[in-house]
Amino acid sequence: MTVVQLQFTALDEISKVHERLRKTFESGITRPLQYRRTQLLQIAHFIQDNWKAIEDAIISDYGRSRSEMSELKTVFDHAIHAAQDLEEWSKPEKPKVEDWLAGWDPTIYPTPKGTVLIISPWNAPYFTTFSPLIGAMAAGCTALIKPSELCPATSQLLADLFPKYFDSNAYAVVNGAVAEATRLLELKWDHILYTGAPKVARIVAAAAAKHLTPLTLELGGKCPVLIDDDVDIDLVAKRVLYGKQFIAGQACISPDYVLVPPGKMETLIAAFKKYYSTFWPKGPLNEGYSRIIAPHHHARLKNMLEHTKGDIVLGGEIEGSERIAPTIVKNVPLDDILMEEEIFGPILPLIQVSGMEEALNIVKELSSPLAIYVFTNSEKLKETLLNSTASGALCFNDTLSHAGVRELPFGGIGESGYGCHGGKYSFDTFTHRRSYANVPPAGEPFMAMRYPPCKDEVYQALTAPTRAEIPKPW
Predict the structure, then answer these.
(1) Which helix (H) or strand (E) holds 225?
(2) N or C: which end of the chain has fewer CB within 10 A?
């Protein structure tokens, strides 16, 4: 395997890139729809022309199998649809107003926010880079991308290919680590979108606050799996194991722990074992299972396995400082090391609960995750989950699938972030809804009462609505 040496952007170059993008936005070049559409379609060409090179870079970075490259098709489709829907998204909106205001031509214009910063992670580098970039391009913004230094082959490929496909005066890549990210955050942006860990998100938020910069954070969290009594446990195990094994559990929407109803623990474990051997007949570590991205992440996960109070019933094999087999741990208490923070790895704790009421209480006591997964056939339980829990998404009877629906927003709430992207939601994130009114001079006779000195009859007229009868609520 060839190790790619990532070329960091010189610190003194970063402010020059920022200034170049800002001047481009101020010139108005990015505003015409034809320009935006051209750039959006270039994303599709980028993916189509370089598919194998992109796959090879991702495999080089952390060994993902080619079957786990679904994000590339997602990006391709998002770009095509954004180009097709751009005119509809960008149309001015005419709100319904009272008749006497209609002559003012009240309108809401979608206008670009300006020059934006997108800080993307290593684990789904193309979705988390291009999903917001599609929105920024569609909105008419200029954008700077800061990929993760933990995926050097992918980040270097982005830097090498960007100038070949996109307007370099409007869209650029800056590579680096802490020093380069710090320099970026010192600059003034018109919006920042960060995907990653809560610890770093607090640093980003503090930096954004200095310039009153609007911010979108996509963070993750401990995504629970709840299991009702009336479901097929065999199917639950199959779908949960699939969701957990995807890129070795290193996904922000990966199932983080399972709340198991009474009498189902051993049946669930048996089903996990069945599909474990089906997915990896020779064992996951012998079949190209994804690597843990960095030695310090591997050490963190290894420490969790060494100090858990639960019982490892499946997996647990560790290979060097790179890979850990998918691992199922039962009898995990709520105060266990596996429950302290988002696992972000191939370890799945099983927690025995007395019933759905206890399961719901556990979910509500922990921080709001990016997704809650519930296996049930009960419409009443679905309604309860909708009304009594908080999460970025709520997905029933499967894991991960909701993220593939282009028409749904992708984002969190509370500790799992705020704001969203994906499809039109990316466009909305980087768009300012600008109010417009044109008050005609001909209306001056009707506005005479507003000028001082204020007469009693004017006061009576202006306050008349407060004395009107308020309608009944039903």
Answers:
(1) strand 223-227
(2) C
